[in-house]
Amino acid sequence: MPSVLAAVMTAPHQPIELRELPFPELEPDSALLRVELSEICGTDVHLQEGRLAGVPYPIIPGHVSVGVLERIRGQLFDVDGRPFAEGNRVTFLDVHRTCHRCRACLIDKASTRCPRRKVYGITYGVADGLTGGWAQYVYIKPGTICIRLDAPAGGSGSPADGLGSREDVKGSLSRMRGGSTASVSSELFMAGGCSLPTALHAAERAEIRIGDTVLVLGAGPVGLSCVAFARLCGAGQVLCIGAPDARLEVALRMGADKALNFQTGRALSAWGTGFQRDACGTGSQSVGGTGFQPVHEGGAPGPNACGTGFQPVTCSTGFQPVQECTEQQRLEWVRSLTQGRGADVAIEAAGAPAAVVQAMRFTRDAGRVVIVGQYTNAGDVSLSPHADINRKHLDIRGCWGSDYSHFHRAVEVLRTDYGRRTWGHMHSQRRSLGNLNEALDEVAHARSVKLLVTP
Ligand SMILES: [Zn+2]
Ligand SMILES: [Zn+2]
Q1: pLDDT tens for residues 316-339?
Q2: What does pTM read for this prediction?
Q3: Residue 443 phi, psi (nearest 5)
Q4: Which of 19, 116, 322, 370 has the CA that lies 20 to 30 A from 397?
Q5: Cα of 97 to ligand 2 centre, how many Å?
């Protein structure tokens, strides 16, 4: 009897083990997905460090994955009522069993808070079957919703029973043909991976208006995708604070106008057609109206004209770190780019509790703050309810998980030229099932932008 090779996280702080697991018995209306790519995200680091409650170890991590439907038992439909066929390339909503009959689902309209939902690779474990992407196969349980990555075949699918009138379905099919029908490569989708629905949800919560200055705190995959979605939402200016420079350079390519490396005090910018960075760092003196003292190549205050002297990207060669920016210096950087007001909208995608308070302080009066980076409890933080919230008339919103709409629309964005170009900058590297302990360490220490898993 052949078996499936899977990388198993047996318990927190334990090395990943390779195990051979049996192929599942397919229940009616289920499928077997041959995994092409999965990913290692920050959540997997949290899982290995035991920072999430209710995880049924041992688990097969890998909540967002793409692959090919190798076997289907019964029928599987997309949201437009088209049947999936064996051989179709898909991703799937990692959230399963949202009940649509509890208070969160029906009354609060917050289905990501449904207590019955289960998540592949996180709250499903080995006992639930092949429920994570760090394996050769994933079991697509009945009720799991798949999303087609290849171009929808124009009208070739027959509508499912019970999905409304034939006219409704015909209408939706013709609308699909009228929109973008390009395929999304597995590599492109997974370059964004779970940051896509997460960041799309955050951008939605942020209600960005045309012309807004949007500040993104954090330059991990979620922060980078937030930058791109903010741009897509019509932001007039997108700023990003994060580290290291390699990630900030990706942020500039994905739509940020300016970025600040908080570890070194180095500011970067993308202006004009080419990609450039300036050599301005943070400092205590005001120069040229920007509020920042220029820092020359060696990191010490120098004669560079901050307001005008943009240096090509090569100026990073031989750069010595200055020192971590203080909160005040970061605030001054944001204010220098917002006529002293602060950002209209800030999205916290950093993970450190202090970043939440900074997001509030870096936002203008009556602005909006969305918190999406605090996926695990990293501790408490102090703030002034009076000065930081009440007097500022601030709108602060949490953002938890994602639902089907976020996955679906993320794929639609990737079908466009904008999506292909933008997420094409999010370079990913591949790791095999046998190298995931080192890979987790790489992600934990931000040594790469994005790591994918090839079973
Ligand atoms: Zn529910
Ligand atoms: Zn993830």
Answers
A1: 333 444 678 999 999 999 999 999
A2: 0.86
A3: -70, -40
A4: 116
A5: 18
